[in-house]
Amino acid sequence: MDGKKLNTIQTILRSEKAGAMLITDPYHLRFLSGFRGGEGMLYLSHEQQVLITDSRYTEAAGKESDLTVIEENAAHRRTQILQECMEQDEVTCVAYEDEDLRCSAFAKLKKELPAVTEWVPLGRQIQAMRQIKTEEELLYLEKAESIGDAAFSDILGILKPGMSEKEIAAELEYSMKKHGADGLSFSTIVASGLHSSMPHAIPTDRQIEAGDFITMDFGCTYEGYCSDMTRTVVAGKADDRQKEIYSIVLRAQQNCLDHLRAGMSGRDADGYAREIISDAGYGKYFGHGTGHSVGLYIHEEPRLSPLDRTVLRENMIETVEPGIYIPGFGGVRIEDMVVITKEGHRNLTHSPKELIEL
After folding, report:
1. Which of the four, 12, 100, 105, 289, has the lowest number of CB atoms within 10 Å?
2. Which fold would CATH assign to domain 135-347?
3. Which pLDDT does position 183 carry in this prediction?
4. 14: CB partners within 8 A, 6+ apart
């Protein structure tokens, strides 16, 4: 674990008056230890940094992490290992991830670790550590987003009426893998025609018809870091109302991008997109936030939302993805992923945004 992360962990321990903390969230485990397996637990104290995992992962953990790796098995169970670590540190107060542990798992820990007299919930303190990305993280995120750009370029070359939503999703996923993706950052969304009025529609066997809106929201992982982008196109010629809706969403996104910068709140950033859509008379058809952060997990904090007053800081990642969704007509969403800078932002998404008629 690098010195900055270790110092922050120790600061949290001191502020919570805890002798150690247990990390169970797989994304936090990766962030703090470097281990990508996702199965295990971290025991972190002022004196020890221990990664506990089983034999399926111990070799990989030893290569990927500089923490002490201890194998758990039937003869040396996880709670036994924790007890040994706590006895060495003389720990009786332990911080834990209350937003990750299930009630049953937490009850089991308390039962099997009776020496712990106080359990302190960590809340979102580890999530907060992940908000500002390092230069290495930004490189991974930029690479992941470039793979999405390549996949969008590929799909434009083959997308046509008669293809099903499932087929388009499969082609996007294959293309991302072909261009170097490790996996998907979320289940691919392809919504056509009337389905496009559902922001998170699940791809179906519906075949594309001439005149359809086709919304494609997709992303991949690269070195564990996620990408996220959305583009909406029209199969054939767009009618006047489609052009109007698309133009409003594009102007809303651009207005947010034009104002986005470090020092403003997520709520204020959301407002720059929302006001364009509301002033055009479509406010009730934009029901979600304008964006969210992205990292090891696809939906991180802070968010560009009417509910988020977090002040944006340099090297945070945000998506900017306003949309209009009209039941019985269809919908449009346009999404880029950007890095917040002192002066504004750096856009990691380079696919065209003008209305594409295929």
Report:
1. 105
2. Creatine Amidinohydrolase (3.90.230)
3. 97
4. none
